[in-house]
Amino acid sequence: MYDTVEVRWILDGPLPAQVETWFGYDGALTPETRTDHYVVMRACSSWVGIKLRGSASGGPTQVDVKARCGEEVELRLAPAVTGRAAAWSKWTLELAHPEAIVSGFEPDSPTLTTHKRRLLRRLVRGDAAREIPPAQDAKSGCDVELATITVEDSDLTWWSLGFEAFGPSDRAWASLRAIGAEWFERHGAPPLAAPSDLDMRTSTDYPRWLADRLADR
What we know:
Distance between the termini: 34 Å
Structural class: alpha+beta
Helix content: 10-25%
Shape: globular
Radius of gyration: 17 Å
Number of helices: 4
Strand order of the largest sheet: 1-5-4-3-2-6-8-9
CATH architecture: Beta Barrel
């Protein structure tokens, strides 16, 4: 089981180049691409997320089950940056026959396939936030993700900025607040047409956001 505390914003449209530059992409960061298949749990979309991820070689598929622990908290990381923060627990399994998982939910819980290109930075706390390679293990810290998202069978694009703190619950909450606030103090808000775009209106989590996309169809 892997515990995190997260806050995320998802905005309409392609990722602005100036936001990618603001994030620190200068060729030193390696973008990661992935395809995920989400089982949309309509009745509890704000509490549970189920994701199927296949390997490039066609081998076992990774299944992530993610559940929200407790109510959301309004979190202010900068004067114009507020979001919905919540604690999550995630269980990961490797399955050779993912179709058995999918068939158990159909037809009431359809799947949506997403394609994501993301940039990731990992920060740990000290006297000040210190960056380490994303693949380097740490007992606690915070991953900052900038991603472009498309949903299969849709010609629309979205982009996302997320902070995912990990470690023991009390340290994860402290990391999210401290590292998130220091991030915006160092970098400022991203260069958007309206700085207030990172607010409670655009702050969401993937399970809820995907349920909304399904409702749009």
